[in-house]
């Protein structure tokens, strides 16, 4: 009888620790996001291309920057006014999907340059 009670107590304590860790992680994540979000800067999208290469879309002071980052190298690929960045986001299962709009915009933008 004592082993059953101690087993149930162990399961209860383990469950409480997991629930507590989950809520603490959520709280810390929200606080960190508030600290990381700047007043004038915002990361709109980040896509990994390789192991240490990614393309990031940043919004800084009403301008949109498309930046390529590889290791310690950062290169600005394009700068766009916020007024031209008028993608219509569609909700699919709670997630926003604007990748097709971004792809078509980038194709138009870079085909004009060449």
From TrEMBL:
GO BP terms: bacterial-type flagellum organization
**Range of residues in the leader sequence:** none
Record carries keyword Cell membrane: yes
Q: Which InterPro entries match?
A: Flagellar_biosynth_FliO (IPR022781)
Q: Which UniProt keywords apply?
A: Cell membrane, Membrane, Transmembrane, Transmembrane helix
Q: Where in the cell is it found?
A: Cell membrane
Subcellular location, principal: membrane
- List the GO cellular component terms: membrane
TM segment ranges: 6-25
The protein, known as: Flagellar biosynthesis protein FliO
């Amino acid at each position: 009888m004592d082993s059953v009670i101690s087993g149930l107590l162990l399961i209860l304590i383990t469950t409480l620790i997991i629930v507590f860790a989950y809520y603490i992680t959520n709280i810390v994540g929200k606080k960190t996001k508030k600290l990381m979000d700047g007043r004038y800067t915002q990361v709109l999208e980040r896509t990994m291309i390789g192991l240490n290469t990614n393309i990031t879309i940043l919004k800084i002071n009403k301008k949109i920057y498309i930046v390529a980052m590889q290791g310690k190298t950062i290169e600005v690929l394009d700068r766009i006014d916020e007024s031209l960045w008028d993608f219509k986001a569609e909700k699919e299962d709670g997630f926003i999907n604007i990748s097709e709009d971004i792809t078509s915009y980038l194709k138009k933008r870079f085909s004009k340059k060449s």
